[in-house]
Amino acid sequence: MKNTARFRGAKALTVGMSILLASACASGSAGSGGNAASGGGAANSDCAEGDGPITVGHLNYYTGPFSDVGPFFEASVDLMIENINENPPLDRELEASHDDIGTVGEAQVARGFLEQDNVDILLNPAHEYSSYREFAQDYVSENDQPLMPSLHGGSIPADIGGTAEEPIFRGQAQDTAQAIAGVLQAREAGAQSIAIVATQIAGSQLQKDAAVAAAEEIGLEVSEVIDVQPEQPNYRSTISTIADAAPDALLLFSQAEDGGTMVKQAAEAGLSLTIIGSTEWLQEAFPQAATQSALDQHEAVWIAGLGTDDSPAMEAWTELWEGSDATQYADASNSYAYGYYDLLNVTALAIEAAGSVCASDWAAAMPEVTSGGTVVHTYQEGIEALRNDEDIDYNGVSGDYAFTETGVVGSLFGVYEWAGDSLEQVSTLDENEVLELDTKVAESAE
Fold first, then answer.
1. What is the CATH number of the domain that holds 164?
2. Does the pTM exceed 0.85?
3. What is the predicted pLDDT for the residue at 9?
């Protein structure tokens, strides 16, 4: 499924053109003032000279286990681009094309966006990036493109990205860190033993492994670890195993509908558990599948994920979201919604600062627009400051937006629960402890 109605202005490929990313190039001329980033490889590339729309190929889900999020993610991207296009970077509007990776797979769609549509930005390399990583690296080395911001790149190893050669910058914390937040919430609730269930999807499996290691690190007993196939109508045998293990808390890593089904079937089996799920449960498909009666029966059903900062960014974001039609999919507290907002804001600001859509310029500009200078809380504040020749430090809805050398962003962490049709953040977690434990787990896995 591909929505290309808004897509135009594809540029010609520079196939066969050798670009040495380490060599000197012209850095940010158009519209960047004194804020241009230095990079390599742009001088002889089409990406340094374009004057048409900046094209975005959005890797999205309309079928498969994550099919419920496709329309929501599409609406989110379109809203953020509409907001940016009120004063676009380099005076070039962004235009998005959305395509389904749920059936044919991420690699095939990504290749199509690059080889056929020649997009400037490949949005959301994710769980299957390793299957086309070599192709992507070769493409970047030949074309100095695409830019690869990703809201769903938390399953890509943390040592990959953040460079001109591999310009991946994540919009949220690593999947492992979000899983570790769930383990810490179990400890905060007084649990001494936990059971862990994960669907056999790459991101969920990554979270499972991190949760097991984190639990052992902080002294929680792991009584059961269970892998299940996604999209099953019946998880009763899994529920029976959990009942026999009698854990103090249950961690479930799954997409929304599967999580809701397991929560409901656990209640139907007479269980009343403390359950902690993954960020996919922020979608309305979760409470719809779980049912309110099941949620009420359990001791607690929490979602460990990302938190928000009480700042002007949150106010501006809430006003934008609540004034749009996208509210039919989620409310402003949904971390995927404001995750797209922050990531696309920073992406566009870095393009302005870089003076081009060349990966070699943009990869250097991403940390520059988030790590020093005038603090800005919105895209409009940022673009005005850049055009006044100011350095900027973007602080967004999710807090201080700072990248590691490999393009991993720091995050706030929160715990949510569904209360009827609304989603409420019930507590926050110590982000330093989450990241410290995530680092230990990663080092132990090497």
1. 3.40.50.2300
2. no
3. 30
